[in-house]
Amino acid sequence: MILKIKLTGEGLIKLPKSYNHLLQAFFYKNMDPVLSKFLHEIGFVYNRRRFKLFTFSKIIGKLASRQGNLVFFEPQITVYFASPLMDIASSAVNVFLKRENLFLGENRLRLESVELIKPTVQEDVNVRCLSPITVYRTPEGETKKQFFSPWQEEFYELIKNNLIKKYQLIYGKSYKEELELKPLRISQRYKKKIVYKGSLIEAWEGYYNIRGSTQIVKLALEAGLGAKNPQGFGMVEVVDSVEGD
Questions:
Q1: Mean pLDDT, residues 23-52
Q2: How far from chain centre, in Å, is Cα 106?
Q3: Is the pLDDT of residue 245 over 60?
Q4: Backbone angles phi, psi at 39, to 5 degrees
Q5: d(CA 23, CA 34)
Q6: Residue 192: CA atoms inside 13 Å, Cβ hemisphere, count?
Q7: C-alpha 25 chain-centroid distance
Q8: Contact 147, 166 (CB under 8 A)
């Protein structure tokens, strides 16, 4: 389930340059409290790993200005939210529709609309990032993460392995069909460095091709690609063309 959420502020929307933690808190606060606590503290466990099974986009709107580590958006913004689990997305919708005021950080916002997006899911799709993709390993005996870029094969292998684990968690069975992921347009300008609660995360936007079963393609759109999806990474949307930005 994919939601397109339009919000309006009382004036310019003031946020830190790295605002992922505020958007994540925004969605947690606007869910059923019991579900929110479960996702935040526990999540869905697979082989000792915890998945929250939701993701969201970066803020889509007109940037009015930058001042040091702050950014100021024009009052009208859009954010996408997605989950393969109906309960998670519908919980957010129900709460949004009931609240007159919503807060993103210190910004008071008003809900303009919530739209259910139903992309055409095929076995071969081109996608672009609505939030950047991050994948990494932590070498044995070390604490520092090793991030990978779209020019490294590990980037695609880790994304595929992660997506297969999500598939197994959702469907309760192994994924045995073809799954391929390849770049369509990548560039150094798509590299993003985002600070999340004191940790620096390297992530990449760009355009990619996904080929697999319709089930796993749909899962990629609803759960996100790569790691840290519930922190605002890896959300993609289907596009017909990779021309322009």
A1: 78
A2: 22
A3: no
A4: -65, -40
A5: 19
A6: 23
A7: 14
A8: no
Amino acid at 198: G
Residue 128 CA to residue 16 CA, distance in Å, equals 24
Output the CA–CA distances (angstroms, integers) from residue 27 to 35, 67, 92, 230, in the order listed: 11, 26, 7, 10
* Residue 110: closest CA among 6, 14, 3, 20: 6
C-alpha 231: how far from chain center? 7
pLDDT of res. 99: 81
Q: What residue type is assigned to position 210 of the chain?
A: I
Query: Pick from 180, 173, 165, 235: which is nearest to 213 by CA?
Result: 180
Tokens of 107: 């910004």
Q: What is the mean pLDDT of residues 87-100?
A: 80
Q: What is the spatial distance between Cα 24 and Cα 104, in angstroms, rounded to a whole number?
A: 10
Measured CA to CA, the distance from residue 158 to residue 138 in angstroms comes to 13
